[in-house]
UniProtKB/TrEMBL annotation:
GO terms for cellular component: endomembrane system. InterPro entries: P-loop_NTPase, Rab_GTPases_membrane_traffic, Small_GTP-bd, Small_GTPase. It comes from Gossypium darwinii. It is a lipid-anchor. It holds the Pfam family Ras. This is Ras-related protein Rab11C. The keyword Repeat does not apply.
Amino acid sequence: SAILELEKTNILSRFTRNEFCLESKSTIGVEFATRTLQVEGKTVKAQIWDTAGQERYRAITSAHYRGAVGALMVYDITKRQTFDNVQRWLRELRDHADSNIVIMMAGNKSDLNHLRAVTEEDGQALAEREGLSFLETSALEATNIEKAFQTILTEIYHIISKKALAAQEAAASTAIPGQGTTINVTDTSGNTKRGCCST
């Protein structure tokens, strides 16, 4: 829906440019922005894709799931239908993305509590059932936007660091001589053979 489009677009512009626009246009196909930030003392450049939510762009957006290392699934807490659609989007994401993808669910517009159609408990319960991280956010007030992206990026950083470490260990254990590996050859038998005819 176009409403959900504005949620994602405003979250992205708040995180990458610290901007909020009440009259954002719906995403056409796929748009992206980047931001460089610190994750556990390391500089990380995040490339964040804003995929269109409308049905007619589905083929384009599902192609962008491949190779993605993280996803933020956004619904509008004032529109129940956007929450009800989360599981469909989640299925699609899991069908097309890498099995190790880090997924977080965000209920946006927490500043409009008086218009709430989805309780925070409902959001938390769905996230727990699906094994997702969860936060309520407000792009308007910049509430939890930074925290949501930091959470996802930290988890991604841990996964990538573990993979890199495992690859280094695997490479070290299969190293061939002549590549800095020393092999000591010693005679462990302890006795020297004598010729058969010795006196």
